[in-house]
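Extended Data, panel c. Modelled sequence:
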Amino acid sequence: MNDKTHRFWRSAWQCLLGSIVVALLTFVCFQLQLNLATTSLLYLIVVVLVSLVGGFVSSAFVSFIAVLCLSYFFAPPIFSFRDEPLDVVALIAFLGTALVITSLMSRHKRTEEVLHEQASLLDLTHDTVFVRDINDVITYWNHGAEELYGWTKEEGIGKVSHQLMQTVFPAPPEEINAELLRTGRWEGELVHTKRNGTQVIVASRWSLQRDKKGLPAAILETNNDITEHKRAEDALLKAQAELAHVARVTTIGELTASIAHEVNQPLSAIVANGNACLQWLAARVPNLDEAREAARRIIRDGNRASEVIGRIRALVKKGDTEKMPLDINDIIREIASLTHSEIQKYGVVLKMNLAPGLPRVLGDRIQLQQVILNLLMNGIEAMNTVTDRAREMLIRSSQHEPDQVLVAVQDSGIGIDSQNLDKIFDTFYTTKSQGMGMGLAISRSIVENHGGKLWVTPNDGPGAAFQFTLLQYR
């Protein structure tokens, strides 16, 4: 039996049952000698009931049967269809009312069926979907929410959502609700506690529904479980931090000779000034002024050596990333100072064009030092074989966009083959005989983790320029 035939027989049975009910009601009302108005009201109740359980056809059919019964048994003269004008008007009014009720009830049923179908579709998704009123009381709870959180629909509906799931917000709830009221939506990550006590991280999306007057009425919240994704992301960040640490240590290893020279200079000066100080004090008439000046030079050179060692310790230190507002120009100067001997060793002329008054950037000092150090060392190596021109390197900083700061490290080396421009940032890709192919890949990862972008462009003349952007701190 197809669906059309099934609907026909169901409607026929509803018409038959409705007719039986009208017949029984007619018999009872006739025996009780009820008047036309009272009987009409009872018939309307029957029409409403048929509309609730049946369809438009069965309800209209029962309405027509009821009008015939009213006309024949209750409208004078009884047992006749010759009615008085007023009774005819009453019968027409009854029929009209019955048909209006039938139409409204049918429309209501169709609306309920559509809503039920839509709710059934929401139950098919694996995402959690629930609706809460303006006081955060849950009014709808789909199957996905039951599976993720553990509470059934009956247990969830009527509860305050944030209390039920012990929501941990990424920002004060007042700020989130203010954004929701202002824009009509909010997206972010939340931490929820499931029925069994375990926590889950979800990507949450809220949509505000308003009533006809424009007032907030309900909030649709959809959540997607990203707990495993976040764990994998944290593991990836940890692995990247490990690789970055290895790369820093390797780079410092390559700088050992230059660093030793950088530290040896102030140490030699300290020894010389110490001997001079002793001589001034050992004289027949101690020259306290000269001795005092020598002591000052000892302190100055000691601090200079200490700064070099401190920078090295910071670079090789292994620890968690810590982002804070930073002056990018200060970081550039620190790396330039650390590589001073290496730059002199290879006969490189370093120029710096650092824009004053740049806004601070939000970043990790050690990681950004690593990026600049890697680009600087790459530039020095790219100019190692240059003999027909000056080995010049330029480091620039400037405002790039209204909310970005740009740093460029430009060399006059051998340049980069256009075929390799897209490859040099790939992991393990290297043109160096002793390289690991990790430096630029790690540098790009660090910059992107800071919300920026790292790229390379060939110079108009010899060499290449590596540039990266960072988001300014607000």
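The first helix runs from residue 3 to 32. This feature is highlighted in the accompanying rendering.
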